[in-house]
Amino acid sequence: MQFTHLKLFKLYAAVALIAAPAVLAQGFAATCGSSGSEIVGTTFYATCTTDSGAQQSTSINLDNCVANYNGNLACATNGGYGGSCSGCEIVTGVQYMECYCTDDAGQQEASILDLDNCLSNYNGNLAC
Protein backbone atom coordinates (compact mmCIF):
# COMPACT_ATOMS: atom_id res chain seq x y z
CA MET A 1 0.00 0.00 0.00
CA GLN A 2 2.84 2.39 0.80
CA PHE A 3 4.27 1.81 -2.68
CA THR A 4 1.01 3.05 -4.23
CA HIS A 5 1.05 6.22 -2.13
CA LEU A 6 4.63 6.91 -3.21
CA LYS A 7 3.65 6.47 -6.86
CA LEU A 8 0.72 8.86 -6.42
CA PHE A 9 2.95 11.41 -4.69
CA LYS A 10 5.45 11.27 -7.56
CA LEU A 11 2.64 11.61 -10.09
CA TYR A 12 1.22 14.68 -8.30
CA ALA A 13 4.69 16.21 -8.05
CA ALA A 14 5.31 15.68 -11.77
CA VAL A 15 1.95 17.22 -12.68
CA ALA A 16 2.68 20.23 -10.46
CA LEU A 17 6.02 20.79 -12.17
CA ILE A 18 4.46 20.58 -15.62
CA ALA A 19 1.57 22.85 -14.66
CA ALA A 20 3.90 25.55 -13.29
CA PRO A 21 6.88 25.76 -15.65
CA ALA A 22 9.82 27.97 -14.70
CA VAL A 23 9.36 31.10 -16.80
CA LEU A 24 10.41 34.68 -16.34
CA ALA A 25 7.88 37.01 -14.78
CA GLN A 26 5.77 39.22 -16.98
CA GLY A 27 3.02 41.80 -16.99
CA PHE A 28 4.02 44.75 -14.80
CA ALA A 29 3.04 47.59 -17.16
CA ALA A 30 -0.70 47.46 -16.43
CA THR A 31 -0.11 48.23 -12.73
CA CYS A 32 2.96 50.49 -12.86
CA GLY A 33 2.73 54.04 -14.18
CA SER A 34 5.08 55.77 -16.59
CA SER A 35 5.38 58.90 -14.43
CA GLY A 36 8.78 58.84 -12.78
CA SER A 37 9.95 55.63 -14.42
CA GLU A 38 13.60 55.73 -15.43
CA ILE A 39 16.77 53.70 -15.71
CA VAL A 40 19.89 54.80 -13.85
CA GLY A 41 22.83 52.52 -14.55
CA THR A 42 21.18 49.09 -14.51
CA THR A 43 18.49 50.02 -11.98
CA PHE A 44 14.91 50.54 -13.19
CA TYR A 45 12.72 52.82 -11.06
CA ALA A 46 8.91 52.90 -11.27
CA THR A 47 5.78 53.56 -9.23
CA CYS A 48 3.53 50.52 -8.94
CA THR A 49 0.14 49.76 -7.42
CA THR A 50 0.02 47.54 -4.34
CA ASP A 51 -2.67 44.94 -3.67
CA SER A 52 -4.51 47.51 -1.52
CA GLY A 53 -4.48 50.09 -4.35
CA ALA A 54 -1.76 52.35 -2.92
CA GLN A 55 1.05 53.67 -5.09
CA GLN A 56 4.56 52.58 -4.12
CA SER A 57 7.98 53.58 -5.47
CA THR A 58 10.01 50.52 -6.36
CA SER A 59 13.20 49.59 -8.18
CA ILE A 60 14.98 46.54 -9.55
CA ASN A 61 18.46 45.80 -10.86
CA LEU A 62 17.81 44.78 -14.47
CA ASP A 63 21.12 42.88 -14.58
CA ASN A 64 19.12 40.19 -12.77
CA CYS A 65 16.46 40.09 -15.52
CA VAL A 66 17.99 41.08 -18.88
CA ALA A 67 20.80 39.77 -21.10
CA ASN A 68 22.62 40.92 -24.23
CA TYR A 69 22.75 38.21 -26.89
CA ASN A 70 24.94 39.42 -29.77
CA GLY A 71 23.66 42.99 -29.56
CA ASN A 72 20.04 42.05 -28.81
CA LEU A 73 18.39 42.54 -25.44
CA ALA A 74 16.42 39.58 -24.08
CA CYS A 75 14.72 38.55 -20.85
CA ALA A 76 17.06 36.20 -18.98
CA THR A 77 17.57 35.38 -15.32
CA ASN A 78 20.91 36.84 -14.14
CA GLY A 79 21.53 38.07 -17.70
CA GLY A 80 24.08 40.74 -16.77
CA TYR A 81 23.35 42.97 -19.77
CA GLY A 82 24.96 45.97 -18.04
CA GLY A 83 28.45 44.69 -18.77
CA SER A 84 27.99 45.09 -22.53
CA CYS A 85 25.18 47.65 -22.96
CA SER A 86 25.05 51.39 -22.31
CA GLY A 87 22.90 54.46 -22.84
CA CYS A 88 19.78 52.65 -21.66
CA GLU A 89 16.53 54.57 -21.29
CA ILE A 90 12.78 54.09 -21.24
CA VAL A 91 11.57 55.15 -24.69
CA THR A 92 7.80 54.60 -24.64
CA GLY A 93 5.50 54.63 -21.62
CA VAL A 94 6.87 52.49 -18.82
CA GLN A 95 7.76 49.27 -20.57
CA TYR A 96 10.12 49.73 -23.55
CA MET A 97 13.84 49.98 -22.83
CA GLU A 98 16.35 50.97 -25.50
CA CYS A 99 20.09 50.36 -25.09
CA TYR A 100 23.20 50.24 -27.22
CA CYS A 101 24.71 46.79 -26.86
CA THR A 102 27.95 45.30 -28.13
CA ASP A 103 27.54 42.44 -30.59
CA ASP A 104 29.96 39.55 -31.18
CA ALA A 105 31.89 41.67 -33.73
CA GLY A 106 32.42 44.44 -31.16
CA GLN A 107 29.95 46.83 -32.81
CA GLN A 108 27.34 48.81 -30.88
CA GLU A 109 23.78 47.88 -31.86
CA ALA A 110 20.59 49.68 -30.82
CA SER A 111 18.18 47.24 -29.21
CA ILE A 112 14.69 47.69 -27.75
CA LEU A 113 13.18 45.31 -25.21
CA ASP A 114 9.59 45.14 -23.96
CA LEU A 115 10.20 44.91 -20.21
CA ASP A 116 6.60 43.78 -19.75
CA ASN A 117 7.84 40.35 -20.86
CA CYS A 118 10.55 40.35 -18.16
CA LEU A 119 9.06 42.00 -15.08
CA SER A 120 6.06 41.57 -12.79
CA ASN A 121 4.54 43.69 -10.06
CA TYR A 122 4.14 41.74 -6.82
CA ASN A 123 2.20 43.93 -4.38
CA GLY A 124 4.03 47.10 -5.46
CA ASN A 125 7.45 45.48 -5.85
CA LEU A 126 9.09 44.73 -9.18
CA ALA A 127 10.47 41.24 -9.75
CA CYS A 128 11.96 39.25 -12.62
From TrEMBL:
Gene3D superfamilies: Cyanovirin-N
Keywords for the protein's UniProt record, in alphabetical order: Signal
InterPro entries found in the cross-reference section: Cyanovirin-N (IPR011058), Cyanovirin-N_sf (IPR036673)
Signal sequence coordinates: 1-25
Keyword Repeat attributed: no
Domain Cyanovirin-N, chain residue ranges per copy: 27-128
Protein name: Cyanovirin-N domain-containing protein
Organism the protein comes from: Fibroporia radiculosa
Lineage: Eukaryota, Fungi, Dikarya, Basidiomycota, Agaricomycotina
